[in-house]
Specification:
282 residues, three-stranded antiparallel beta sheet, alpha+beta, 12 strands
């Protein structure tokens, strides 16, 4: 075989191997470039499906909303923001531990109380259990509006700050509750209405008799010390007994009523008032 033919064949083989290797390198490069995007997309889908907060603001809304659910705030401060012919309502809710919830028109945001010594919120966000090194974490920068330059014209619109001493407000609320409890009368009169109708007829030729019970609780902070029953209408019915429960915490009324058979359909009815005297607990 001529030398030039051999050389041409060798060059052809080397070119094929080089093309194959080059193709593999390109494919690997494309795969490595796509992996972070795939991981990020998968993480986003996971967070959306399981309702995982995606930033510090959503995290604060979820954590603090769950923490203070059902809790009454120390301060409820409504604010009307007016501009031209439009007014937007804003409400500031401050809780006992210093956390703040703001409602502004259709927007809402929770803000955790920040300890000035640590510059960190007192309420920390729990870990979600997801850690991916290729996905960067979110950070929030602290902004101090007082560090910005305020012009003389802007200073004329500055309003005096509102100072809320949460410890004092909480103490005042407890004292007011105690004062209201002490201001209640030593003794009160309360009435409880009792009504019942028995108009079923389970038997063909004989009447039926049933027993009933009803319980009436004393007013909060009081106990029932005296009681009586005033009938307003008794028809085939009878008050059997009235018992005091737990040293006057409540009254249990037991009564019976009868009704006629199918062939003679008369009914039983009961209506009356239980009058009580209740004394404030010591």
């Amino acid at each position: 075989m001529p030398d030039n033919v051999v050389a041409e064949s060798a060059n052809t083989n080397n070119g094929g191997w080089l093309s194959t290797i080059r193709g593999i390198v390109v494919a690997l490069t494309a795969l490595l470039a796509a992996v972070p995007a795939l991981i990020y997309s998968g993480s986003a889908v996971y967070k959306a499906v399981f309702d995982i907060p995606t930033n510090v603001y959503d995290q604060a809304n979820k954590n603090l909303g769950d923490k203070h659910r059902g809790e009454v705030p120390i301060i409820d401060q409504p604010i009307a923001v007016k501009k031209t012919n439009m007014t937007l309502d804003m409400t500031l809710h401050v809780y006992a531990n210093g956390d703040v919830y703001i409602q502004y028109a259709d927007l809402e945001q929770w803000l955790p109380f920040v300890d000035p010594s640590s510059k960190k919120p007192t309420t920390t966000a729990p870990k979600t259990g997801i850690g991916l090194s290729l996905i960067s974490s979110a950070y929030a920068q602290e902004i101090n509006p007082r560090s910005q330059t305020i012009s003389a014209e802007q200073k004329t619109n500055v309003r005096p700050s509102l100072n809320f001493d949460l410890d004092k407000l909480e103490l005042d609320r407890k004292n007011n509750a105690a004062a209201q409890a002490n201001a209640r009368p030593q003794q009160i009169e309360r009435e409880y209405l009792i009504t019942e109708l028995k108009d079923n007829h389970p038997y063909l030729v004989q009447s039926s008799l049933n027993a009933y019970e009803k319980t009436f609780a004393a007013e909060p902070g009081y106990k029932i010390t005296a009681y009586s029953f005033q009938p307003l209408g008794l028809n085939n019915s009878k008050i059997e007994k009235i018992d005091s429960i737990n040293n006057g915490e409540a009254l249990k009324v037991t009564y019976t009523m009868s009704s006629g058979p199918v062939l003679n359909r008369w009914s039983g009815s009961l209506k009356g008032v239980i009058k009580t005297t209740q004394t404030k607990k010591q």
